[in-house]
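User: Hey, quick favor. My workstation is busy. Could you predict this chain's structure for me?
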Amino acid sequence: MVKHMGKYSFTVIIEKDEDGMYVAEVPDLKGCYTQGETLQEVLENIKEVIALCLEGQKDVHPHEFVGVQRVEVSA
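Assistant: No problem, here it is.
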């Protein structure tokens, strides 16, 4: 998360579930997630949810985004 003059910038993780819905989550804000039928819809939805999650928050603890790795394991 980065804050610039009253604006925040968060890392958003977006996945596509087994039903084809897009699911977005903000790791920096506990319980901050949503879904949408399209990528555009989920991005619009997550902006609204972030604003709601920030209401009443005094201390947001940002994480440094490092990257994404796909790991294979045998079960």
